[in-house]
């Protein structure tokens, strides 16, 4: 099967694309039916893009943009995307690192997938609440990344909340809030439920100007930010959740997926994605750990084979409590400052991760739903929750950024804290106990896949 590669280069190749794609999709005997339909239905959209040409290659099907991520030049728009079909579902090239931050031209308007073509107003009816941004504004800007990301985080919130409600039997309290400096959010909280002592799933979409403290945090991560008259306009959005179950045999789970955009003094924009999903059990369960990590690995492998191993290590490093010499839990994946290989590919990866939240966690909840537990096991859970609080208040980057941002909603920022926790003086589990086994794993992170 020939490879079809579309590069955003020139305007003269549109006719060639029409001539080559349609016969190819009709006549290739070895092309599966799904790919054939994809090619037929994509011709009109793809060939309407400027600066496109068709180039044959070896195997698979790839549509690629030469523009890479990180920066948009004022007055210029580059349109192009990476769409992967059939057996060629891999993303070439990039592995994010803690210090990497690429700056290059990138489009702010990007073609949407067929899934996203569903009418925005209809999709919004399925959310826990109307989105933070007015629906009419979202419809007017439906191809912008900010709109696409807001729709994704609203969808993720609704999907996860409804899955938890079905298990617990309770209902989330939906709390809309506004930030006078710009933007707002939707906090969904279920408290004192049958299964979940405290469950929170928050969405926020905020904008304004970065404070010097927030800008300092970003510069410390290697970002070069050039404001104008001391101002750095920004837009930040994300979905964040922490679930604290009552039963100590059901693990705590956390996930967060976010998008950040900064406009510099000369009108250029820097953008990046970040996030991850991680598990914090009270007791070691190898099957649970394997299921959780395998689910995340499958989502990562759709985009690049190095994503899971690299982001797993990053997670172990990030969720580490130095003053205790232990990790917060058994990890998962974590990444930040993701601005490559393109905005479209980065968004596609984040979307895959967000869609994995329910299948990686809910089966574990169902498995332990009726596990009996003793007062001693509950006490150990309370001690472990104390460690959770220590990490979130002392080290978590999102909490620190939120507290440094004027107008932030403290209740939403501290939603991640458990309803109850415990700090025992000089607490150390006896050797040979299940509690000691858990501590050993936290002090020496292991491979679960």
TrEMBL record:
Protein name from the UniProt record: Oxygen-dependent coproporphyrinogen-III oxidase, mitochondrial
Indicate yes or no for the key word Transferase: no
Q: Which Gene3D superfamilies match?
A: Coproporphyrinogen III oxidase, aerobic
**Subunit-structure text:** Homodimer.
Q: In the Enzyme Commission scheme, what number(s) does this protein have? A: 1.3.3.3
Mind telling me which residue stretches traverse the membrane in this protein?
A: 81-101
Name of the coding gene: CPOX
Output the Pfam families linked to this UniProt entry: Coprogen_oxidas (PF01218)
Q: What organism is the protein native to?
A: Oncorhynchus kisutch (Coho salmon)
